[in-house]
Design brief:
By secondary structure, the chain is α/β, with parallel strands linked by helices. The protein contains 13 helices and 12 strands. The chain has helices at 66-73, 76-81, 94-103, 113-122, 167-178, 202-208, 220-226, 253-258, 260-279, 281-296, 302-310, 320-332, 348-356, and strands at residues 31-34, 54-60, 85-91, 108-111, 128-137, 139-143, 158-161, 193-196, 213-217, 230-234, 245-252, 312-314. Helix 7 (220-226) packs across helix 11 and helix 9 (260-279) crosses helix 13.
Amino acid sequence: MPAIRSTLLRRGLAVVAAVPLLTLAACSYGSKAKDDTSDQKIAAGAQKIDGLDSVKIGYFGNVTHATALVGVQKGFFQKSLGATKAKYQVFNAGPSEIEALNSGSIDIGWIGPSPAINGYTKSDGKSLRIIGGSASGGVKLVVNPKKIKTLADVKGKKIATPQLGNTQDVAFLNWIAEQGWKVDAQSGKGDVSVVRSDNKVTPDAYKSGSIDGAWVPEPTASKLVAEGGKVLLDESTLWPGKQFVITNIIVSQKFLKAHPKAVEAVLKASVDTNKWINANPGQAKAAANKQLAVDSGKALPAGILDPAWESIKITNDPLAATLNTQAAHAVKAGLLKQPRLDGIYDLSLLNKILKAEGEPTVSDAGLGVK
């Protein structure tokens, strides 16, 4: 577990006005329901869990949500839920998934750290809990090698991030500050021009020359490499143990209280899925890509999927200390006033499952429910 690098984040809550803070990089707001998957079958004689007809699960159609993609495609969730039907909703943006969780349109979701922080703080700690981890890594600084050959060359260039205040935007602003350079976080103007660009259009912006590079998650990073870009920096190298959270599992507090057995079943499926992914990486990559094709209508070509997949580590550990640090970086950048994150984690069910399977338990870095 990486060490906590900041002791901020204990008191107060105020978000800078007019900033869409801590939202996850995405193509657009919205989602679509997915009820049918190739391997989703209810076994004969299976029983409903907690008397529920269904459990509604949300996730994003990208490789950083590999646990969800593979769990859906290979039927792990349905198997664990028995006769309670697993229903799925695919999202394109963090805010819409948080809204769906708050409204009851979904019960459990895979989501990035920043929207989880935002959803928790905006609800005064009443909307959600982070109940497990899913993935680490998968974020890179990719540049035009003709214009940028060293990290020092980034100064004076136009570098894209997915969205003002999103996870990658905050990370890049923090990296800029650590170089001793100055950038106004709101406008993106300064020693580096930070261009907020939707991941969907960033490859075209790079190809046209309107940006010189981008600090982006996978598979956008590998798409830029396919256009001739070069990976100048892998964000994982900036973190202790080369690990930082990119995807969490969240649950509605209301659903967790009312249906803990159902939540435990989904977490058990997640742990089983992660174990299968790590034991069968080739098959898992193919399964994830097959589900991506179902969800988006198009699978990723091998030249993009392979490097994207290699840069992501699948893990049950939510890497809570790194979420704490990511929020501290947002405070440092002036995008977030010091929030109170105490209680954002409830890892009791996950640790119960891990202990039963002889696996190491995971830490909430002091941010768990008391």
